[in-house]
Structure to design on (398 residues):
């Protein structure tokens, strides 16, 4: 029967109600799955059904199996071979869930749903039960992907790498403690962003970032032109020890927040407006003049808020050595903070995680969901790449 005949009005009129139509579609699905399995066995044996063959292995009847699909439960006949060496890819042995429903379970887990919520959702939508242990077993296999992803080779050069940490509560022994997932995003020569990895440790520190940077180098990264980070104490020296030629840029937004913490609430708005003259300056000289003016006006009252600008001046104003188009990319860590926000969105239902593996699995799936649209280069990439090449012609080989 052709597709046109199957969908014709005359054919569809034979079904008196929705129940009869659903029954027909169920039989159609059953037949389709069984034919696919017969095709898999043909390929396994090396000859088609009803063909004569001198091969030692041959067909050996069928076994009954009930599988769970996105359309509900389905009872099928699975072909067997004499040697019991046939393991169909569509419905593997000792497995009652086809890939379609597995993907649904993984997707729901990635979006932050708990195991019990997923169990209830599957029951309501697909009208069959999946045990919590089955759901956990499906999502646990994700950790194999996490390990492979964490150890994949990287490009030898990244133009910009943004780095930041995000804190989660994780059970350790009888206590629940704070642990940090360290994340790095790289901007490659193709203008596309890529999450280079994630690493779990206790409390964000420069010493742990050293192990992160060392891991990047071990996986093939030879050079980073610009790093964009917060002003964590010792971070600049840590980067310099692994990638000595990298230009270090401390996030201006972090600096503004940190400075404002030491300013009275009523004067914070005015103080922030005066700080704008520093990071909106056309060059370093103008920025330094604006800092001196800020110090003259506020230094006697809020000296500590200004001191941090002077302490980290070279790293705070590094972006002013670049063309305007590149400045917009490197002067903040907004790229990674936006990603962290999406990770928080997907994991907000999990108040704490039972193990380190559980938090890494959830963050990995969240990253996968959040970066699905990272398929295009950043805006005006041709112009920006040419500017990078002019500035770093001895380090870029396009």
């Amino acid at each position: 029967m052709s597709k046109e005949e199957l969908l014709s009005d005359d054919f569809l009129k034979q079904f008196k109600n929705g129940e009869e139509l659903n029954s027909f579609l169920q039989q159609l699905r059953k037949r389709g799955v069984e034919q696919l399995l017969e095709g898999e066995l043909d390929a396994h044996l090396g000859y088609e059904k009803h063909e004569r063959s001198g091969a030692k292995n041959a067909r050996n009847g069928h076994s009954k199996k009930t599988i769970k699909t996105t359309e509900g439960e389905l009872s099928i006949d699975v072909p067997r071979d004499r040697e019991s060496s046939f393991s169909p890819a569509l419905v593997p042995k000792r497995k009652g869930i086809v890939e379609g429903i597995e993907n649904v379970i993984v997707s729901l887990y990635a979006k932050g749903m708990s195991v019990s919520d997923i169990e209830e959702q599957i029951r309501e939508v697909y009208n069959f039960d999946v045990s919590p242990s089955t759901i956990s077993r499906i999502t646990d296999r994700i950790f194999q992907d996490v390990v492979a992803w964490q150890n994949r080779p990287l490009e030898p050069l990244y133009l910009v790498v943004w780095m930041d940490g995000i804190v989660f509560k994780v059970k350790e022994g009888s206590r629940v403690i704070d642990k940090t997932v360290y994340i790095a995003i790289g901007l490659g020569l193709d203008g596309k962003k890529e999450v280079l990895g994630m690493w779990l440790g206790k409390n964000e520190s420069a010493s742990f970032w050293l192990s992160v940077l060392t891991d990047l180098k071990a996986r093939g990264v030879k050079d980073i032109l610009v790093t964009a980070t917060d002003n964590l104490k010792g971070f600049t020296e840590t980067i310099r020890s692994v990638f000595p030629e990298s230009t270090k840029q401390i996030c201006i937004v972090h600096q503004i927040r940190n400075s404002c913490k030491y300013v009275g609430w009523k004067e914070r708005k005015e103080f922030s407006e005066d700080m704008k003259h520093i990071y909106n300056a056309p060059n370093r000289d103008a920025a330094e003049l604006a800092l001196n003016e800020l110090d003259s006006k506020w230094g006697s009252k809020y000296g500590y808020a200004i001191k941090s600008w002077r302490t980290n001046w070279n790293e705070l104003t590094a972006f002013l050595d670049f063309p305007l188009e590149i400045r917009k990319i490197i002067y903040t860590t907004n790229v990674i903070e936006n990603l962290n926000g999406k990770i928080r969105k997907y994991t907000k239902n999990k108040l704490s995680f039972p193990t380190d593996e559980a938090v890494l699995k959830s963050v990995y799936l969240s990253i996968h969901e959040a970066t699905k649209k990272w398929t295009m280069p950043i805006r005006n990439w041709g112009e920006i790449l040419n500017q990078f090449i002019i500035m770093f012609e001895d380090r870029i080989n396009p």
